[in-house]
Amino acid sequence: MSMLSEFKAFAMRGNVIDLAVGVVIGGAFGKIVTSLVDQIIMPPIGMLTGGIDFNDLKWVLKPADVTDPAHKVAEVAIQYGAFINTLIQFLIIAFAIFMVVKAINKLSRKQEEAPAAPPADVALLTEIRDLLKNRPV
Fold first, then answer.
1. For the chain, how far is it from start to end, CA to CA, in angstroms?
2. CA nearest 30: which of 117, 106, 97?
3. How much is the pTM?
4. Which of 23, 25, 40 is nearest to 89 (CA)?
């Protein structure tokens, strides 16, 4: 089998196509969650915390140096506010995925099957046994 035909067989399997669709949908969902966190959830939280914008929270290790225009030095900072936003986004995505998986599991859960009826010969032997037990001696 040539490399090209082997790759075609791999790419056309259902799992690969499903994965590709999932990645595209996941990317779009990630943008929605980012917008939800940045534009809807964080502003009220910032207002409750005294107008703090979490994206601006950082710990500056080395301030920027712009005194010499020829050799500008960028600021070195740990941006923990952006990390807090990313953490909230992750929690929202994780909860949404949990709810989707829970719904899928609930829909795909098969009804417990009723116990299968015993074969006819076993049922007949059981009936004979019960009749022999109950007959007068």
1. 79
2. 97
3. 0.54
4. 40
